[in-house]
Amino acid sequence: MFCANRPAGTVFAARAAFALAGFAIASWAPLVPYIKEELSLTHLELSRIILLMGTGSIIGMLLISFFISFAGIQNALSLSAAALTGSLLLLAAMPPIHLLAPTVFIFGLTLGCVEVGGNIYGTHLEKTTKRILLPSMHGCYSLGEIIALAIICALIFLKFSIFAAIAIPSVILTGITLKALRSIGSIAIFNSDKKHKEKLFVLPKGAVIFFAFISSLIYMVEGGMLDWSGLFLLQKTDISIGFASSAYIVLIIAMAAGRFSGAYLIGKFKNYKVVLGGVSLCATALIAVYFAQNLIIIYACFMVLGFALANIMPICISLAGKQQSMPVIAAVSSISTCGYGALILGPALIGFMSELITLNGAFGALGLMSLALSFIIIYKRRLFAIA
Question: What are residue 90's phi and psi, to 5 degrees?
Answer without folding.
Answer: -65, -40
